[in-house]
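Q: How would the structure tokens look for this protein?
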Amino acid sequence: MFSFAEIMKAVILGIVQGITEWLPVSSTGHMILVNEFIHMNFSEQFINTFLVVIQFGSILAVVMIFFKKLNPFDRDKKPKEKRETVSLWIKVLIAIVPSGVIGVLFEDEIDAIFFNSTVVAIALIVYGVIMIMLENRNKKPKYKSFDDVSYSLALKIGMFQCLALIPGTSRSGSTIIGAVLLGASRFVAAEFSFFMAIPTMLGASALKLWKAGFGFSGFEWLILGVGSVVAFVVSVIVIKLFMDYIKKHDFKPFGYYRIALGIVVLVYFFMA
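A: Here is the predicted structure in token form.
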């Protein structure tokens, strides 16, 4: 049954998704809080599917913004540049293997054990502290371009993405922290995290839809479409602003924000 209120809820969640997916602040932590207040009137299965599938809009934003850089068939690229693009894709695919394997094998068990407000809050706070400590080191990066990133380094960065399977960690946060710890510059760490998101989130969306059986009503498909389109538009804006930001600033503000949000989540659910 058509409901304008539910469409507005999809818009709000799409905005939250588009902003928080690309910043190292945990989209899950924000979604949990926002959903507490807006309460979508659908089955729990559909809501869980919606929160994953709208990531598809965010994926399209990355593809659009970085299309030239990620396209190995670009006619304007010289043979050497095309080889470098293919090499970049190989590194990305290597990096997503660890989290992909663990996610497919243990997704249900991980959700059952860790998907709760306490774990999310603790993860927000812990990784916020780590982010601040990491910036306080003020260590010069060893890897300032994707050419410097080896296949073994890509795999190591991918292992850090496994941490994001725990809700509240943040996929972008775990990969960016991991890449910087391993010696990558903030810019390389952020871009590589974005590129890793394409197959990771595409796979997660497809898997969620497949498990749900695609058996949605016409209005539910509309809700999925609205959320995805809004997530796409907001993601385009946020990614561009974020890449400009890290050229001149560090990640400390995101660390402080994570700590504050983690405390809010703890207090809210403790008082509830």
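The chain has one domain: 4-271.

The chain has a mean pLDDT of 89.

Upvote if useful.
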